[in-house]
Specification:
Chain lengths: 668, 271
């Protein structure tokens, strides 16, 4: 999902396949997830399908057991009125029971709609209404409360299945049923209904809708894209073939299931290939769970990689002494070698020797500590990754690659192939996927497995008469067949001086600093670039502790002059880099400010996948941006109303000049 | 938490029952110092009962009387209608009374898991020899204890620190572990001595939620001593107010809040 959301794309839109519009098949053809599960159950039988760490122990669900559970669940859901073409919502973390629910919905020919577990009720309600969701699987009481609160707005919703029974005892709502109770219902129903589920599976067709995913809506409102069984399976197979994935592989699922990428790597591809999905105990235990499992393939995001790198760096800093010195040298070498290998330059014998040495004492143990010692392939997707982070992990010996795709294009569009991983490309298109660049520079995709359309009046991307989808991303296709993605079409701007301005590469460089959590640069139509930076409370807090700076929270920390000094140092390095390249020299960051509050998806500034909504951001921080361009040294900003805080008022935010690179200074 | 409490008020998982613990005219003296003077109140099954009061009001003494650490000179304590003669902490524990302490009393060098399993001691029957020779009974009991401990770890959301030494944990988390150890004994009555003392707002909110959840999911009767009036008023069913060892108020939070004597004791009066 390099870029998703809706731009100004015009063109005919396909009507969405609503439940009632779906044709009834006597016996469907093509592959469906339900048929894949049946074949996995006989082919892979007692191999693990899902593993979940629960109460300290990894518990395995085999393919055979999964298929049996899914049959029972499907019988129960049929008993509760779920029909072909209905929509089922999923609201929770990655759990085997959530994915069993998806498979049960698929068995009956219903469409699964995974949502982001941290989405708020008002965000969810329009989507449930739009799809006419009748049944929902939720994780716990928190999610139940969310749905009960919006129940009046969603009249079609009549069954809510909850997984965790904690604190659910007082609830008496007729819509609610626990997962355990549903399974009991299913056992009884299966006896009564005979081969109802088998017949429903027979009737399924590869062209039927399987999932509805919300695109992140980074440039506007989210749209609900519909994807088919056959399309998702074909792409999952093509991607697996490129990496030679097999049932012996395993992955760890920790990103929100509402994100299409996670749903593919925790459901679609495991179904198609037969590998095992491991669900960590909680997000806090992720790193230790990952070490125990040591997955062979996984999907991650640039933000996650930043976090992991920052954590490692901070822990090493805390260790100090010889360890730190060794680590720093190893990292420097890793970055140097990684960069050179990514650029295809030769590496000398001496450096190869020291790399082997560091592998024994630093990289190997580090890979092991991160749970990456068995990784065959790791993908980073969802956003462009900073080249230095990519180089670092690759030099560690982790086969980290970029993966490109959007919700509408079926997510798996291009991946970097072994031996051809370069920081500036996102790899070559998968087998069966054609890509082309439109005259105005937009990436077009034609393949099996493009979305079938949006639900409702979604007015976004569309597929033209020849089957080409406009992705909304600008890019180029090299003679080497490698796809390069520049930026989201709407984000590319022009500075007042006429120079092109692509915000994301600059932001990614700033974000690569362990002290920065989020960075937004502004410059389109302006006189130069400014940066608004959200500092990482944990790492800057620790830095402040060691430098004996007292602070009382994020707001206070982000207002400290010495923290401004710290960030100014980070920016000076980046400006020097930017100034070196004539193309980016006009984009050096001239001024910056530190945001008093952490950016959050709850007030709409970030999408649920953690991307900036630039229009919302520009509105929210308009006074600060204007003050920065007016050359003032501070600006007043209305504080977000914090829960339970009476001190909601006005923040006085300082604005500073960033150190310009020497070359730029001469020019000025 | 608002939705939860609204639902709780409507239909409570465990309806409040009759009195399970009655304190009748309790007086406690240390030499010439009167710690508690003629105090009577009761605690009903499944309720959250708070004891509040300014510093030195006798709150901890009250809990120590219930727990059997102090024996009052006058008055009697009845647990489920049965008069308790000489109460001892061991006896209290066997009767289903668990507690936490104002100053955390954990085994600092042991892991979170081991601390919580230590709370299971009274639930096990294995003898020293059983454990030494790892007889089937001791192994079975250890597995049971581990399962119960893991259930509590999940309940209190401390999975990420289960193998961490307690001494290395932040204060707020240590308090949670202590609650976990008390829960491991599967108590009928849980005594919490200032569970939120020294916590920041966020930690207090977490602790409130866990206290409500314990009451809600296990039906445990909870007696808690607390300093922070706001917290107490939010989560307790009934409140006893002590001042200088005397009871000056008793009733539901809204009623106690309006009590002039209570207001005077907390805010001070001009003499």
């Amino acid at each position: 999902m390099q870029s998703v959301g809706t731009g100004a794309t015009t063109g005919a839109r396909r009507s969405a396949p609503r439940g009632e519009a779906l044709p009834q098949h006597a016996a469907g053809s093509g592959e469906t997830f339900a048929r894949l599960l049946r074949s996995n159950a006989s082919r892979l039988a007692d191999r693990p399908a899902y593993r979940e760490k629960h109460r300290g122990i990894w518990r395995t669900t085999t393919w055979r057991a999964l298929a049996r559970d899914v049959d029972i669940l499907a019988a129960a859901l049929a008993g509760r009125g779920l029909k072909r073409g209905d929509h089922v919502a999923f609201l929770g973390e990655n759990r085997p029971r959530l994915y069993a629910g998806v498979a049960a919905a698929h068995a009956l020919g219903a469409v699964a709609m995974p949502l982001f577990p941290d989405a708020t009720g008002p965000e969810i309600a329009p989507m449930l209404r739009l799809a006419g969701v009748t049944h929902a699987f939720v994780e716990d009481q928190e999610q139940v409360d969310k749905l009960l609160a919006i129940l009046p707005e969603c009249p079609a919703l009549r069954c809510i299945v909850y997984d965790r029974e904690r604190s659910m005892r007082p609830y008496r709502n007729p819509e609610l049923v626990s997962y355990a109770a549903l399974v009991e219902e299913g056992r009884a129903a299966a006896e009564r209904s005979g081969d109802l589920v088998s017949r429903a599976i027979e009737a399924g067709d590869g062209g039927d809708a399987a999932f509805v995913f919300l695109n992140s809506g980074a440039s506007g409102a989210s749209h609900a894209a519909v994807l088919s069984h056959g399309g998702l399976i074909a792409r999952a197979r093509a991607a697996a073939a490129a990496e030679r994935l097999s049932p012996a592989d395993s992955t760890i699922a920790y990103l929100p299931p509402g994100w299409m990428g996670q749903a593919i790597f925790a459901y679609a591809q495991p179904m198609a290939v037969g590998y095992c999905v491991c669900c960590p105990e909680s997000s806090e235990t992720l790193l230790s769970d990952m070490r125990e499992i040591a997955p062979t393939c996984f999907l991650t995001t640039p933000r996650m990689l930043d976090t992991i790198f920052s954590q490692v760096a901070l822990r090493m800093e805390a260790a100090g002494g010889v360890n730190l010195a060794l680590f720093n040298r190893a990292v420097a070498l890793a970055r140097r070698l990684g960069r050179r290998r990514l650029a295809g330059e030769p590496v000398g014998a001496a450096e190869r020797m020291s790399a082997a040495l560091y592998d024994a004492v630093v990289y190997g143990p580090l890979r092991d500590a991160l749970g990456m010692s068995r990784v065959k392939v790791a993908y980073t997707s969802g956003d462009a990754v900073d080249p230095s982070i990519l180089a670092f992990f690759r030099a560690l010996g982790v086969n980290l690659k970029q993966l490109y795709g959007t919700t509408e294009s079926g997510f798996l569009v291009a991946i970097q192939r072994d031996g051809a991983v370069r920081p500036d490309t996102v790899g070559a298109p998968l087998d069966g996927v054609e890509t082309r660049i439109s005259p105005d520079g937009e990436i077009l995709v034609r393949a099996e497995g493009l979305f079938l359309g949006y639900l409702g009046d979604g007015d976004g991307r569309s597929v033209d008469a020849e089957g080409w989808l406009r992705t909304g991303d600008l890019g180029s296709l090299g003679a080497d067949g490698q796809l390069r993605v520049a930026d989201r079409a709407g984000d590319i701007g022009v500075l007042a001086c006429g120079a092109a301005f692509a915000p994301r590469p600059i932001e990614n460089r700033i974000k690569a600093s362990p002290y920065v959590r989020e960075a937004v640069v502004v410059g389109d139509g302006r006189d130069g670039v400014i940066a608004l930076i959200d500092v990482n409370t944990t790492s800057v807090g620790r830095w402040a502790d060691t430098h004996e700076i007292a602070f009382s929270g994020h707001r206070d920390l982000a207002g400290q002059d010495r923290v401004y000094d710290l960030v100014a140092g980070v920016l000076a390095d980046i400006n020097a880099e930017l100034a070196r390249d004539p193309a980016t020299a006009p984009c050096v960051v001239r001024r910056f400010a530190l945001l008093p509050e952490e950016l959050s998806a709850d007030d709409g500034v970030l999408t649920r996948t953690g991307k900036i909504r630039r229009t919302v951001f520009a509105q929210r921080f308009a006074p600060l941006i204007e003050a920065a361009y007016a050359g003032r040294s501070s600006a007043s900003l209305a504080a977000r109303e914090a829960e339970g805080s009476m001190a909601a008022g006005v923040d006085e935010v300082k604005i500073r000049d960033a150190a310009l690179a020497p070359a730029d200074r001469r020019a000025a | 938490m608002n939705v939860t409490t609204a639902i709780q008020a409507a239909t409570r998982a465990f309806a409040i029952g009759g009195p399970i613990l009655e304190l009748d005219s309790i007086s406690l003296r240390f030499g010439g110092v009167k710690a508690l003077t003629n105090i009577s109140f009761n605690i009903c099954e499944h309720e959250i009962r708070a004891i509040i009061g300014p510093n030195g009001a006798g709150k901890s003494s009250m809990i120590n009387v219930i727990n059997g650490i102090y024996t009052p000179q006058e008055g009697e304590v009845r647990f489920r209608g049965e008069r308790l003669g000489a109460m001892t902490p061991q006896r209290a524990a066997r009767m289903g009374i668990s507690r936490t302490f104002q100053n955390i009393a954990l085994f600092k060098r042991m892991s979170v898991l081991d601390n919580i399993m230590a709370g299971r001691t009274l639930q096990t029957r294995a003898t020293f020899l059983d454990v030494a020779f790892r007889t089937p009974r001791s192994r079975r009991e250890e597995l049971e204890s581990r399962e119960k401990a893991e259930e509590i770890i999940e309940f209190l959301e401390i999975e990420d620190v289960r193998k961490t030494q307690v001494a290395k944990l932040p204060y707020g988390l240590q308090k949670r572990v202590e609650l976990g150890r008390a829960l491991a004994a599967e108590p009928k009555l849980l005594l919490l001595d200032e569970p939120m003392a020294g916590m920041n707002v966020e930690e207090k909110q977490d602790m409130c939620r866990f206290i409500l959840d314990v009451n809600e999911n296990y039906g445990t009767t909870i007696v808690l001593i607390e300093h922070d009036m706001g917290v107490v008023m939010d989560i307790s069913d009934r409140v006893v107010v002590l001042d200088y060892g005397k009871k000056i108020g008793d009733g539901p939070p809204e009623e106690v809040k309006r009590n002039q004597e209570v207001i005077d004791a907390y805010l001070g009066v001009a003499h």
